[in-house]
Design goal:
- The chain is elongated and about 175 Å long.
- Helix 4 runs parallel beside helix 8, helix 6 packs parallel to helix 8 and helix 22 runs antiparallel to helix 23.
- The chain is of the alpha+beta class.
- The longest helix has 52 residues.
- The strands form four sheets. Strands 6, 7, 8, 9, 10 and 11 form a six-stranded antiparallel sheet that branches. Strands 13, 14, 15, 16, 19 and 20 form a six-stranded mixed sheet that branches.
- The chain is 47% helix and 17% strand.
- Strand 17 and strand 18 form a beta hairpin.
- The chain has 23 helices and 22 strands.
């Protein structure tokens, strides 16, 4: 058995134990070697008896049956004795060097004797070795030269000598000597079959001497010794292994060796007794062989069935072992299994990486073979301590590996058989270096947190889910007049005035009840209570800390008494500024004149971002009895500066319109005026309504389109070339302002507005203007446009529809509705759903 066969291994683990060798039982191999040694001694004894007969001249020792059997030649007797001694030395477990040299010398002697005799047969002469030792007086029993061994004996001894030499050299494959042994045994059995069946042709070949009967027996014994000299290898291994191969091989070998000779002897006996003739005897022999081998086949099939079942179970076990090995290999921890002597039976890939050693250099070896000496002693001591304790052991330790020191969590436990006796031990070693470092960092972080908490400028309270204080920093002493240690374990509502505790507690409970509470700052109507009973306004920042066990609440409390005082002062100043700005705005814009021939309604909303001051304005300017100028504009920006520019533009435009300037001339003059102001941008539109000619002429400087609602159709845009905003044109290259004239029938309505009414973040302003046009249709549908009350209602409807919340709107809005008086019949009723949309 090789060292790889003896190395322990775990099924499914790839180790040094080879998986391609046959299983053997040690006592079977030992018995085979003993049989081989006994056969070698028995063969040598037969040769020694004949040799003594030659020395003493006793014919009874030379022949098995004196006077009938052929005697063993003297050279044959010497060769048999030498070969028996050679084989006896070889089959011993550990022969000494001197004995091994003697064995090889004896084998060479036998081979030389056989080779010289074979040369005599080949050449037909004599070289004087036949009667070299003794004079042959048994020649009458055979033919050929006296003292010369039989040809079949010569061939057998040559093969036996060569086989003994090969069996003693481990580098030579075992099958070579075993095949030679089978050949030697077959030559001997052939002679024994000839004697048993009384077939002289099998005893003697031609005119040469025949093989002695006890020579044949010695050859069979020597063939057996050669076959079993190395029982764990070659053909002998196929017969003697403990697996299915050995069972089937032994069964078939015994059957082949015993049954055919017995059947043949029985048939010949029947023929000799005259029970049946040769033909019937042959038929009976064939039938007997068929019956025997049929029985052998079915027996083999039964064994094969058991083999298949066992193979299926083995495959299942192999799959389980593969799963176990795969589990081990994909486990991030180091996993190993050792026998009780400390040899590794299985390891995983993490083990290989940790030691930087391939698996085949680990399995079958001990700790000291694969680890540094200090680490190996430490590991072995831990193994022995666990085995002595008899139960699993877990501990944290630091190990110095080739890559440096690492922290490990080691778990060792014994593997026990059904009787509870440990037969191996398993270890699971987890690298916890990062975890230990994280724990240390957590400790350092906790220390830093405490230091940060104590150095924070504001009072900080940490509460549990019930509102009980679990930690407070020293600043609570300055804010509330109470020691931090005195607050721990008390309710946080104790720091709130009694009249306000229910509200404060409800706020905290509502915050904790949120599914995902986010950090929140509260400062509305929150008050703290000092130890002397005085109250003060506070700002509280609330955040939550959640872990697996509980929810903690972090309160940062700040005294905002000074902030409240400053806010009150700032609010008072703001209100003063707002009143001043509002007064200025209305004084600059003024009230449009009420014209009987041109009823109107207007709305102005100031942005909530500024104190009621913006740059929007409009003006209605009577030009003569039938002509009226209307101007609406928007100064970019907010505040007093925009309002001041708006006031100047309103005054300038009013004066220019009184001169009778056309819309385009007025825009050119205003553009020059705005250019002189510097860094200003204004959009506006000026139109002249001529009620005598029933038309309107308008010019736009970057302003939004004017909407007109005719008496017999939907609201539409009054299309006109849109010029650049005022203040954009330079001196060198000015863009001209163009005007356009459109018919305007009595009973129509005109809508002017600024961008605050239709402009929204994330929306299309064109779509918003279309929506405004549809809303105008609805608001003025069937309403008399010469009624100021109807125009006021329509203005309110437009604001409510386009502006959801006027209290929080962040842009200036100016809206102007004009009605062109006409006959009531010119205004259609509300049945206008099928009219085309504005265009």
């Amino acid at each position: 058995m090789t060292r790889e066969q003896r190395a322990p291994g775990l099924p499914g683990a790839h180790g040094t134990a080879r998986t391609d060798v046959l299983p053997f039982r040690p006592h079977v191999l030992t018995t085979a070697r003993r049989v081989a040694g006994g056969a070698a001694l028995a063969a040598g004894l037969l040769g020694l008896v004949s040799l003594i007969g030659w020395i003493s001249g006793a014919d009874a020792l030379k022949e098995v049956l004196p006077g009938v059997s052929v005697a063993m030649k003297a050279n044959t007797a010497v060769a048999v004795v030498a070969l028996g001694l050679s084989l006896f030395v070889i089959v011993r477990a550990r022969p000494r060097a001197a004995a091994l040299v003697l064995s090889r010398a004896a084998a060479v002697l036998v081979a030389v004797i056989g080779a010289l005799t074979f040369a005599e047969y080949a050449t037909g002469g004599s070289i004087g070795i036949d009667e070299l030792l003794f004079h042959d007086d048994t020649a009458y029993q055979g033919t050929g030269p006296p003292g010369r061994m039989a040809p079949n004996s010569t061939a057998a001894l040559m093969a036996a000598g060569a086989g003994s030499l090969c069996a003693g050299v481990k580098r030579v494959p075992a099958w070579v000597s075993q095949i030679l042994g089978l050949t030697v045994g077959a030559l001997g059995m052939l002679r024994l079959y000839g004697a048993a069946y009384r077939v002289p042709e099998l005893e003697q070949f031609g005119p040469y001497s025949g093989m002695a009967l006890h020579t044949a027996a010695a050859l069979v014994l020597m063939g057996t010794a050669l076959l079993l000299a190395r029982p764990g290898e070659g053909p002998a291994g196929l017969l003697l292994n403990a697996g299915t191969t050995g069972a089937l091989g032994r069964w078939l070998f015994v059957t082949v060796v015993t049954v055919p000779p017995l059947l043949g002897w029985a048939v010949l006996k029947g023929e000799d007794e005259g029970v049946f003739g040769p033909r019937l005897g042959t038929a009976l022999l064939v039938c007997g062989l068929v019956a025997v081998f049929t029985a052998v086949i079915f027996t083999t099939l039964t064994v094969g069935r058991r083999v298949e079942v066992a193979h299926s179970r083995l495959e299942w076990q192999v799959r389980q072992n593969e799963l176990l090995q795969a589990f081990m290999d994909h486990t991030p921890a180091v996993v190993f299994i050792k026998d009780l002597e400390g040899r590794f039976l299985a390891v995983n890939t993490t083990f290989e990486r940790s030691l930087n050693l391939p698996r085949h250099r680990v399995l079958g070896r001990r700790d000291e073979d694969v680890m540094p000496s200090d680490l190996a002693r430490q590991a072995r001591a831990a193994d022995l301590a666990m085995l002595a304790e008899g139960r699993p052991v877990q501990r944290e330790e630091q190990l110095v590996l080739p890559g440096g020191p690492r922290e490990f969590l080691s778990t060792l436990f014994p593997l026990k058989d059904a009787s509870g006796t440990p037969y191996a031990l398993c270890g699971v070693v987890t690298d916890i270096t990062e975890r230990v470092a994280a724990q240390r960092e957590v400790e350092r972080s906790h220390q830093r947190f405490v230091a940060l908490l104590e150095s924070a400028p504001d009072a900080i309270l940490i509460l549990d889910g019930d509102g009980t204080v679990v930690m407070a920093n020293p600043q609570v002493k300055r804010l509330f007049g109470r020691e931090p240690g005195d607050l721990v374990g008390t309710g946080v509502t104790g720091l709130v005035p009694a009249a306000r505790r229910r509200r404060h507690g409800a706020l905290l409970k509502a915050y904790l009840g949120l599914r995902d509470p986010r950090p929140t700052v509260l400062d509305a109507d929150l008050f703290g209570l000092r130890e002397d009973g005085s109250e003060f306004p506070v700002e509280v920042s609330v955040s939550s800390l959640r872990d697996e066990q509980e929810t903690l609440v972090l309160l940062t409390v700040r005294d905002i008494t000074e902030r409240r005082r400053l806010e009150a002062e700032r609010a008072e100043r703001y209100e003063q500024q707002r009143r001043i700005a509002y007064t200025l705005q209305h004084s600059l814009m003024g009230e449009p004149p009420r014209l009987a021939h041109l009823p109107c309604a207007y709305r102005y909303l100031a942005s909530v971002q500024d104190p009621g001051v913006g740059g929007d304005w409009f003006d209605v300017i009577p030009l003569d009895e039938r002509r009226t100028g209307v101007l609406i504009g928007d100064v970019m920006g907010r505040g007093l500066e925009a309002a001041a520019v708006m006031g100047q533009l309103r005054a300038a435009s009013h004066a220019l319109a009184r001169t009778g300037a056309t819309p385009s001339r007025l825009m050119e003059a205003l553009d020059t005026f705005v250019g002189d102001l510097g860094d200003q941008l204004v959009t506006c539109v000026y139109l002249v309504l001529d009620q005598g000619r029933h038309e309107v002429t308008l010019c736009s400087a970057g302003h939004l389109p004017v909407l007109a609602l005719p008496p017999d159709g939907p609201a539409r845009r009054l299309k006109t070339p849109v010029g650049v905003p005022l203040g954009v044109n330079g001196v060198a290259a000015a863009v001209p302002f163009e005007e356009a004239t459109w018919p305007l029938r009595p009973g129509s309505a005109v809508v002017l507005y600024t961008d605050g009414l239709v402009e929204r973040p994330g929306t299309d302003i064109e779509a918003q203007i279309d929506f405004l046009a549809r809303t105008v249709d609805v608001a003025l549908s069937g309403a008399p446009v010469d009624d100021p009350g109807a125009l006021d209602q329509a203005a309110d409807h437009l604001l409510k529809t386009l502006i959801a919340d006027t209290d929080t709107f962040d842009d200036d809005v100016t809206l102007l509705l004009l009605g062109v008086p006409g006959r009531a019949a010119d205004r259609p009723g509300p049945q206008r759903a099928d009219r085309p949309g504005p265009g």
